[in-house]
Amino acid sequence: MDKRESPATLSASFQKLDLNSSTSNITKTFNATTAASFQFPVLLPFKRTKPPSLISLCLTVVGKHLEDVIPDLGEIAISFPADIKMAIAAIARRRKLLNDEVIISLADASWEILDISCSEVTDFGLQKVSEMCTSLLAVDISRCSNITPLGVSQLVQHCHALQTLRCGGCPRSDNTARRSLGLFKPNLNDMEGDSWEELDTTEITQCAGSLQWLVWPRIGSDLLESFSAECPRVEVNPKPLLPFGLKGIKGIEVPREALPDTVLDERILEEIDPSTWSVFAPPAPKNVPTTISTPSELSVAEKFRLAFVERDTRLAPKRAKNARQHQRRAEREWMMTSAEAKAIVHASRVTRSHHSRN
Hints:
By secondary structure, this protein is mostly helical.
């Protein structure tokens, strides 16, 4: 450039100078790269899903046609493993096919959980299953309108390792849970016997000594307070983590079976296609606020009938024991007051002395 150039020429040269050339080139390069990425998307690594096992496929087929298998289920299920029996029972419960016949045919001695909620199982079925599955740790009888305190007493009597019991959910089940609370309390108030030796061991150990968790969402506040005071070892509607005790004891971890929104047999059907029971799935229970039971929930006649059956069953052993005591007392009084009895006693003594002399 000539040093003698005029100021006008220099001014024109500065106007032609592009100071944003590098920025524009970068922007063009970025736009081109972006367009290319849309045209040719980057392939992410494909995550393979685990294919269903042959057992789960077979259970899916059996579950969809379970109503055709039930008549011969007792003979078919004999050779099934315990987990397969429990899976079939879970499918039957979701399809509203679970009753006494089905649960008795599938019951296995190695079962530790039993979920018969919202089913047609009665006291008879629960009793038979309790006699076979004595190692049960968690049982769900919620929304079972056919189960009464008699069935709960059979469950407590045979399953000495029971830790979690889920109940309530419908008017009849709430009534059963309310009348069964006495089964969980120790009973040492029987003072009618003549001595402690005459007390039967079963009368002292009828309570569920191993029960720790009771799940009953609709229990009343007054009933909850009185039961917690009389039986503090049983935690009603536990939270995920109990608070620290007054003595600094660490918080007790609540098992999964005792949490309020847990389904006991949910893990058994993790690999089963939900379409097996989706059409027949029972409606989900609604969270109903705690209210005092109204007379419309259960008729007065039905309440009297259930109360009479419960009282008659509970007092039957005591009546038999009192009859034996009265019989023994009558025999002693007869021996002491009757002349005929005294004559028989003297005659027997003379006969023994006569035989001893000979």
